[in-house]
Write a structure and sequence with these properties.
Oligomer: heterodimer
Strand order of the largest sheet of chain A: 2-1-3-4-6-5-7
Shape of chain A: globular
Number of strands of chain A: 7
Helix content of chain B: 25-40%
Distance between the termini of chain A: 24 Å
Strand content of chain A: 5-15%
Order of helices and strands of chain A: HHEEHEHHEHEHEHEH
Structural class of chain B: alpha/beta
Mean pLDDT of chain A: 95
Shape of chain B: globular
CATH class of the largest domain in chain B: Alpha Beta
Number of domains of chain A: 1
Largest sheet of chain B: 5 strands, mixed
Low-confidence stretches of chain B: none
Chain lengths: 286, 404
């Protein structure tokens, strides 16, 4: 329905907190060309976050929310972990279901919204950590891909269970030492981007969040392809600077190192996805 | 003389069924007799309930009911239907459907219930009026698929209403009433309508059905106490101010009061349930009965048979208080019913005796008469009325005359 839901009753406007008034007046609604370049000027859809100072995940949130082509009709589903600290600060409809069932809940939401609003575009975006996506939630994640659910799944991979105090996850590289891998993790990092391709995703990207413009591009591509074709997956490196012993100003440096190796930019598109992306480029939306 | 044409606005649902009031559908519409199973009763109820979404997963004995919900989807009566990956996935998917503003129904049994366990408090806490039809079969191990309602015990304190039907007829009526009661804005919690698997799901009985061209009014998610997740109304304040995410007194108090409120909502369902179920309890037998059975589901049906034998063949005054709603629990009705009784028996189809615990909790400090959690069978054993009679006569110290 759109922007109208952010309009404030004139009689009550003077009593509303400034950040709510700003959402009506200064946020970018109804403009699919919105993007990270609006960040310095527009009201962001995430209020002050409660993550650690310098956390790359907070940057990822800001870039993603700035890049949603249709925020006025976008539902965001999250999971448990550091990300769940941020969701209550997002100005859109967000759901915290449980730990690991985010893609199942998102499937239900997407299908019912298609049934209830056949003439409208409602984008459903899942944002969850590596533990939620790859370990405890792998079943629900992959099954939603098998079923060709028209949702976008974004994994914030910090390679560790950070919110619970630093335990190794499926996304931790082999040999890295965390609190439940004394002496170093014994198994390889799960190649989730490859599993996503094999499981039927039509657009898959792997990258760090060192480049805001790049994040904007993959988010828009993933959402447009999910809307028209089927599931899409974005694997983002958002290092936990706390757990790998870096300072608050070293997150960007860390991501730039990984840009050259295990998070080297990687993109996959099915033939149907290529068509959609080509069309969107022609329309000037990408 | 001018002729005035009186027009009445007639509404139809998406399937073209005429929308009628819950009272008309449940109590006033003409009914015809059908010889159907409990699983078919689920289909017939859902067909008349303007259901938006259903997700399924195979497990005995509920699979057949789930197949038939799929048929309804194919025929156009249900908007969204598919088979999920597991009960955990299914109960998550149905939660997503309900969050997005759908009237939802799903089914499960036995171990599937426990596989999905994490979802039930989440449904209640999210105030989703999902209807779960539970066809009870007990839980492992060892593996069993026989009639047993042990899993109902685990559901009693999830924040969901739990109702227990005795017959396929009652299951049909309860499913329709379940939507109506669960969706009241001042209730708005999930409802679990349970039956004893096989005994009800797979047995044919006479069921009286209203016509299938009438149906319940569609669900209106904008009357819900929590906004639906559809970006059609402003995000709720609770989403912008996360009470669970802050370590301070206000967040603790908010979380605690939220949980109390879910329980209070179940209590607020009582007047609605009383109306649409025609009472939270049913009385059967000799009103003067000194032997009182308190039972639910199939155990109540067997207790009724035993009561007939006790009265007519053994000369013992007996009666049954059949409980329809375990949550909300009819505490007042139970306390009232024990007046005049000398013995209370709670027969159950499970080994732990969850109803006995409920009855004892309700009666603690309110009666001095003995309460016997017997007979109790499990794992698929039957409970013949003669066995109940023998147990009762043995305990009250009377000679067994006619049975045995």
């Amino acid at each position: 329905m759109s922007v109208k839901i952010f309009k404030i009753n004139e009689e009550l406007k003077e009593y509303m907190p400034q950040e709510i008034v700003d959402l009506e007046e200064k946020a970018t609604w109804g403009n699919p060309k919105r993007g990270v370049m609006d960040l310095p000027y527009a009201k962001e859809l995430v209020e002050e976050h409660s993550l650690c100072a310098g956390c790359p995940e907070s940057a990822a949130f800001r870039y993603i929310l700035a890049s949603l082509p249709n925020p006025e009709d976008t539902i965001i589903v999250n999971s448990t972990g550091c990300t769940s600290l941020v969701f209550p600060h997002i100005a859109l409809h967000t759901v915290h279901p449980l730990f690991g069932n985010q893609n199942a809940v998102a499937s239900g939401i997407k299908r019912v919204l298609e049934w209830r609003f056949p003439d409208k575009v409602k984008d459903v975006v899942v944002i969850a950590g590596d533990g939620a996506t790859i370990d405890i939630g792998l079943d629900c994640t992959l099954q939603s891909f098998f079923r060709q659910e028209k949702i976008t799944t974004i994994c914030f991979d910090n390679e560790v269970y950070a919110n619970t105090g630093g335990q190794d996850s499926g996304a931790t590289p082999k040999g890295m030492e965390f609190k439940m891998a004394p002496g170093g993790k014994q198994w390889d990092k799960v190649p989730m981007w490859q599993l996503a391709i094999d499981s039927g995703c039509h657009y898959v990207a792997r990258l760090t969040v060192s480049s805001p413009k790049k994040v904007e591009q993959v988010v828009k591509k993933a959402i447009y392809v999910a809307r028209e074709v089927g599931p899409t997956y974005i694997h983002l490196y958002t290092p936990c600077i706390l757990e790998i012993g870096l300072n608050a100003d070293q997150g960007l440096w860390e991501m730039r190192q990984r840009d050259k190796e295990r998070f080297k930019f990687f993109e996959y598109m099915s033939d149907e996805a290529k068509e959609v992306i080509k069309k969107k480029k022609e329309e000037g939306l990408l | 003389m001018s002729q005035q044409v009186k027009t009445e606005k007639v509404r139809y649902n998406r399937m073209g069924q005429k929308i009628v009031s819950p009272d008309y559908l449940l109590f006033e519409a003409p009914r015809t007799k059908h010889f159907i199973t409990g699983s078919e009763a689920v289909k017939e109820a859902a067909k008349r309930a303007s259901v938006d979404a259903s997700i399924s997963y195979p497990i005995t004995p509920q699979s057949e009911a789930a197949h038939m919900l799929g048929e309804l989807w194919r025929e156009g009566y249900i908007g969204v239907y598919f088979r999920g990956e597991s009960e955990f996935g299914v109960m998550s998917e149905i939660a997503g459907c309900a969050m997005a503003g759908a009237r939802t129904i799903t089914t499960t049994s036995g171990p599937g219930t426990l596989r999905a366990m994490e979802l039930f408090p989440m449904w209640a806490g999210s105030r989703l009026p999902i209807q779960l039809v539970l066809m009870a079969r007990g839980i492992n191990s060892p593996l069993s698929i026989q009639p047993d309602n042990l899993e109902m015990y685990f559901l009693l304190d999830t924040g969901c209403m739990v109702w227990h039907a005795e017959t396929a007829q009652e299951l049909f009526d309860m499913i329709i009433a379940g939507f109506v009661v669960a969706e009241q804005p001042d209730v708005h919690v999930p409802v679990i309508t349970a039956i004893d698997g096989f005994f009800i799901s797979h047995t044919r009985e006479a069921v009286y059905l209203p016509p299938d061209d009438i149906a319940l009014p569609p669900y209106d998610p904008y009357k819900a106490p929590m906004p639906p997740i559809d970006m059609e109304m402003p995000p709720g304040r609770f989403m912008r101010d996360p009470f669970v995410m802050k370590s301070n007194y206000i967040s603790y108090a908010t979380h605690a009061s939220w949980q109390f409120e879910v329980r209070a909502a179940i209590e607020r369902a009582k007047p609605y349930a009383k109306h649409y179920l025609r009472g939270l309890v049913e009385h059967f037998g000799d009103p003067e009965g000194e032997v009182l059975f308190i039972a639910s589901g199939t155990a109540a049906a067997q207790a009724k048979e035993a009561t007939q034998i006790l009265i007519h063949e053994e000369g013992v005054k007996a009666r049954v208080l059949r409980i329809k709603t375990i949550r909300p629990f009819p505490t007042e009705e139970v306390r009232e019913a024990v007046k005049g009784a000398k013995y209370v028996f709670v027969p159950e189809f499970n080994v732990i005796g969850w109803l006995e615990r409920e009855v004892k909790r309700a009666l603690y400090g309110h009666t001095d008469i003995p309460i016997f959690g017997t007979p109790r069978v499990g794992g698929g054993m039957t409970m013949p009325p003669e066995y109940i009679v023998q147990e009762v006569l043995k305990i009250i110290g009377k000679e067994v005359k006619h049975v045995g």
